[in-house]
Design goal:
The chain has 2 domains: about 40 residues; about 100 residues, 3-Layer(aba) Sandwich (Rossmann fold). The protein is about 40% helix and about 20% strand. The protein contains 5 helices and 6 strands; from the N terminus they run E-E-E-H-H-H-E-H-E-H-E. Strands 1-2-3 form a 3-stranded antiparallel beta sheet, with no helix packed on it. The chain has a 3-stranded parallel beta sheet with strand order 4-5-6. The radius of gyration is 18 Å and the shape is globular. The site of zinc ion (ZN) has 8 residues, from loops.
Length: about 140
């Protein structure tokens, strides 16, 4: 691969390649990590959807088991979501929340339970449909 694109956040042009895959690499700059080249919206949507077709990938199934309807209040992720909502509640003037990339829909669900006007958007139609089924939350499909 030739020169990489600059970091989309800090503009660094001399980032270090951490991981290479065919046609793609993950780079580290002073501010974090980024992918080069950036996958297209269609590539991301196809990859996300693939997790829902046939058998879920093992990692996706694990996430849905832990953070679906049967989630545990004492789970570290659930407790972190509650803390984040409390922080946002102190910082934000209103109580409207949009979760971009909803996962299972749990954050939207927890926000609604805490009195927020919350909805989600996800690039993956299957994820959006599943979140709606799992928690009855509104999730639009798009990027
Ligand atoms: Zn950077």
């Amino acid at each position: 691969m030739g020169p990489h694109r600059p970091c989309p956040v800090c503009g660094e042009r001399r980032a270090r390649a951490l991981h290479r895959r065919p046609g793609r690499r993950i780079l580290r700059c002073a501010c974090g990590l980024f992918v080069d080249p950036l996958p297209s919206e269609a590539e991301v949507a196809a990859r996300e959807a693939a997790a829902f077709r046939g058998q879920l990938l093992a990692e996706t199934r694990t996430m849905f088991d832990a953070y679906g309807r049967g989630y545990r209040e004492d789970d570290p992720v659930v407790r972190a979501f509650a803390r984040h909502l409390a922080t946002l509640g102190r910082l934000a003037a209103g109580r409207r929340l949009l979760d971009v990339g909803v996962g299972t829909g749990l954050l939207v669900h927890l926000a609604r339970q805490a009195g927020w006007d919350a909805a989600g958007v996800d690039i993956c139609a299957e994820a959006a449909a599943r979140a709606a089924r799992e928690f009855g939350v509104a999730v639009a499909v798009g990027a």
